Amino acid sequence: MFSSDIKKNIFANGQSILRSIVEHYETRGIDFEESNHMFMSLIANVAEGKVEGSFDEDEGITKWTLTDSYRKLLEEQRDSLKNVVRGPW
User: Fold this and answer.
1) Domain range for residue 57?
2) Considering the domain boundaries, does residue 12 fall inside one?
3) 87 assigned to some structural domain
4) How many other C-beta atoms can be found within 10 angstroms of the C-beta atom of residue 13?
5) In the chain, how many domains are there?
6) What is the pTM of this model?
7) Helices (DSSP H) in 1-89: which residue ranges?
8) Residue 70 placed within a domain
9) DSSP tag of 82
10) DSSP 8-state code for residue 64
11) Sorting pLDDT into bands at 50, 70 and 90, what band is 24?
12) Of 10, 22, 29, 67, which has the fewest Cβ atoms less than 10 A away?
């Protein structure tokens, strides 16, 4: 039914996903279409193995970062792209 990679990525980030759902609800992001679209895009990136979550105990929120493998892929592709405006901005 599900790709084993998708299932693995979702299960590996299960607690972060659940915390983010609660955060999304409590901050009323659920009431806004654009916010829901961004949230679901985040979950899609988790499923694709591009992003992983961690809980910041000090701030009490879930933080998301690129996975090492996806960051490496982007860095490899960066130099071949000619229409990229280099940062920082």
Assistant:
1) 4-78
2) yes
3) no
4) 22
5) 1
6) 0.81
7) 4-12, 14-26, 33-47, 68-78
8) yes
9) S
10) E
11) very high
12) 22
